[in-house]
Amino acid sequence: MGTEDKIVVGISIGDINGIGSEIILKTFEDSRMLEFCTPVIFASVKLMSFFKKHFETDINFHGIDKIEDLIPKKINVLNVWKEHVNVSFGEENEKGGEYAIKSLKAAVAALKESKIDALVTAPINKSNIQSEGFNFPGHTDYLAQELQGDSLMLLISESLRVGLLTDHVAVKDVVKNITRERIDNKINTIHQTLIEDFAIEKPKIAVLGINPHTGDNGIIGDEDDTLLRPALDNIRKNGKMVFGPYAADSFFGSGNYKNFDAIIASYHDQGLIPFKTLAFGKGVNFTAGLNRIRTSPDHGTAFDLAGKNEANFESFREAVFSAISIYNTREEYKEISKNPLQTSRKRSYSKKK
After folding, report:
1. 241 DSSP β-pair partners
2. pTM score, two decimals?
3. Would you give the DSSP letter of residue 247?
4. Are strands 37-43 and 75-79 parallel, antiparallel or unpaired?
């Protein structure tokens, strides 16, 4: 647990030319946020002072050179670097990616060492982060390497949770990446995270088909019949309440998603298009299945809005709240697991509306 029982939330700055700085500042302009957590921004005081001046905010920072010096009820900025950095709002360039990764690596190192309790990542650009020292499609793949467990990209909102069998995979490669082992692993992961991180004792999980109309009895592909259905049948035999595969085109429009605790989509856009349609601006990306907690907003760098003081910060604020909530729920689960006689669970954290 963080200093003075406040959860310590680490924040990576994201692409310095995007909207990350703005949504971070707007989130913590509200001093009530400090009642829920102690934030640590992994960047530099010089850079954050530039952003403070640019966005004309009266927010105050506490600069530190090592995380052990953080002060609760303050917005701490850990100096990951000391040099001056030029910011070019809205521009995709090498510097934006370089400092995004410096911030991310420092934050993940602190997370691994339990110096922070949870990590919230501001958006990065998947193109300019690529280098000899960082060759990953995005946050999720890097975290999967650095942390323990089987990662699952899980989009969450107040009324919807959508996980993915395959995430950042080209459409032409989706089918060959959906294996029996992957199906088993992803469903096991989402089942466990619903229990441990969301306090759902008997989760109901829906799975969307691979092909249109789940193949129409093999007319539009046979993967649903030869791969997905047998895998789900076997999982059900082990006692998990897993349903489907469902035809994806009507699943959300019919409101059927409301009958389940989580939905697993076969590929990225099959899950993210309906999620962002229903929850955009308030959705959160949670990397489930790992031994540490990481969340992020459900949007990207938004270079077209960068520096204009027009970015919506609600999704980032929700990501902070979700990280706190998941941390608390997971800690409660650990305590209850130590005492098998305890049969009821209560969430001590209630998100401020």
Report:
1. 204
2. 0.91
3. P
4. parallel
